[in-house]
Amino acid sequence: MALTLPGTALSPEPNSTQSGNNVTKDELRAELERQEQRYKEVYGGEITTYAAQPEPERKPWRKRASLLDQAFKQELQKMEDELKEEP
Predict the structure, then answer these.
(1) C-alpha span between 10 and 35 (Å, rounded)
(2) What is the mean pLDDT of residues 11-32?
(3) Measuring CA to CA, which of 27, 47, 55, 60 is 20 to 30 A from 35?
């Protein structure tokens, strides 16, 4: 599996350092650098590389109280207050 830059008409070439589908990071970097150089030589284009974006932190999901939930909570509070006042 040869990697090519998106939007280019480069013909895919087999990767001689590749064994099966297991490619190390160094081999992948070398292949991408080789393809970058070839793209610059053939098309005279400029290449911009971007760092990977970090995964967003997950925030706990909180359910908002519905009107029924609020009314139920108020009724419970009233009942608790009445029980406290009786004795």
Answers:
(1) 9
(2) 71
(3) 55
- Provide the strand spans (E) within 2-86: none
In the chain, helix, strand, coil percent, each to 5? 45, 0, 55
> Has residue 14 got a pLDDT over 60?
no
Instruction: Give the pLDDT confidence of 70-86 residue by residue, as tens digits.
Output: 999 999 999 999 998 87
Backbone angles phi, psi at 19, to 5 degrees: -120, 110
Buried residues in 23-55 as b, exposed as e (16+ CB within 10 A): beeeeeeebeeebeeebeeeeeeeeeeeeeeee
